Amino acid sequence: MPSSAPTKFILPDLVSDCPFQPHVSRHRKQVTTETKKWLFQGDNLVGKIRDRYHGLNCGLLAAMVYPTAAYPQLRVCNDFLTYLFHLDNLSDDMDNHGTMTTADVVMNSLYHPEIHQSPRIAKMTRDYWKRLVSTASLGVQQRFMETLDFFFQSVTEQANDRQEGAIPDLESYIALRRDTSGCKTSFVLIEYSNNLDIPDEVMEHPLIRSLGEAANDLVTWSNDIFSYNVEQSKGDTHNMIPVIMNHHSLDLQPAVDLVGQLCQQSIDRFMNDRAQLPSWGPEIDRQVQIYVTGLEDWMVGSLHWSFESERYFGKGGREVKQSRVVNLLPKHI
């Protein structure tokens, strides 16, 4: 353990390390306005939860990670991402029973949309799902449901750890975090947002899966670095940094630096996998290229957005992006 508690830490320069160029959809303002109307209608969001939405800037995230989507698809993607943050905020305050109940409501809304459940989250789920299935391929629909199911299973496991005050070992954490991130479902929306219909056997190819994992790891581990300050102030240990501090007996800054190195390695892994992709014929290759570019958009877009949102650094995101210095918040457990 550190001899004296640190008061700040330095972020790794992940923005410079990422070799891809950010893009922003021209539909950004429109989807932001429409999603906000959808989210706030009736009593979908009230009180503190509604306040959290304002600084989130989710419309910018959607516009950066699905920059080529047509407006109707981008709107569904933005609704889903906003809804995912809403679920994440809800699950932060839940025990494992609460997350399982929410999971049942959401998954039943997808598998049985004709059965009208009354909870607000069920109505929201049915609404965006109805719009998504109107143009999504059957493969996309199936992958969306499967990956969202994995998300809920892993969030329930995370809630168990939180209740028991347990810090998982590194390997278990990495496997769990790939699901709690919501990235797998968000990456399915790359296919949806670009009207792709890539065969299952191509999506399950080891290199395609490895590319998705590398992108997921970069998005997720960089997010752990950016969200660490807020999470440590609440005593939340479901984060790569405390896992590594615990696993390797490291102080804060060396642990942050190590997570930064792992992020760089995930970029290298992605570039290496991308260079080795086989050919499946002109049409499938064209669609695979769009999908892989979508993963790149997610990697670079999420990095830049993290400093534009108030979720991690309050109103000081741009300043932190320049200085890379994060002053630790006091703990309020």
Q: What this model shows, in words?
A:
With about 325 residues, this protein is mainly alpha-helical. The chain has 17 helices and 2 strands. The protein has a two-stranded antiparallel ribbon.
List the helices and strands and how they pair.
Layout lengths: L7 E3 L3 H4 L10 H13 L6 H8 L3 H8 L5 H22 L3 H16 L8 H14 L4 H27 L5 H11 L2 H11 L6 H4 L2 H29 L5 H9 L3 H24 L6 H27 L1 H4 L3 H7 L1 E3 L6
Antiparallel strand pairs: 1-2
Helix pairs in contact: 2-4, 2-5, 4-5, 4-15, 5-7, 5-10, 6-7, 6-8, 8-9, 8-10, 12-14, 12-15, 13-14
Describe what is shown at a glance:
The chain is an all-alpha fold and 333 residues long. Helix content is 71%, strand content 2%.
Distance between the termini: 20 Å
Q: Quick check: average pLDDT?
A: 91
Helical segment count: 17
The largest beta-sheet arranges its strands as 1-2
Beta percentage is under 5%
Give a quick account of the main beta sheet: strands, pairing sense, barrel closure: 2 strands, antiparallel
Uncertain segments of ≥5 residues (pLDDT<50)?
Answer: none
C-alpha geometry = globular
What's the total count of β strands?
Answer: 2
Mind telling me the C-alpha Rg? 19 Å
What series of H and E elements makes up the topology? EHHHHHHHHHHHHHHHHHE
The helix content is over 70%
Structural class: mainly alpha
What would the keywords be for this entry?
two-stranded antiparallel sheet; globular; single chain; 2 strands; 333 residues; magnesium; mainly alpha
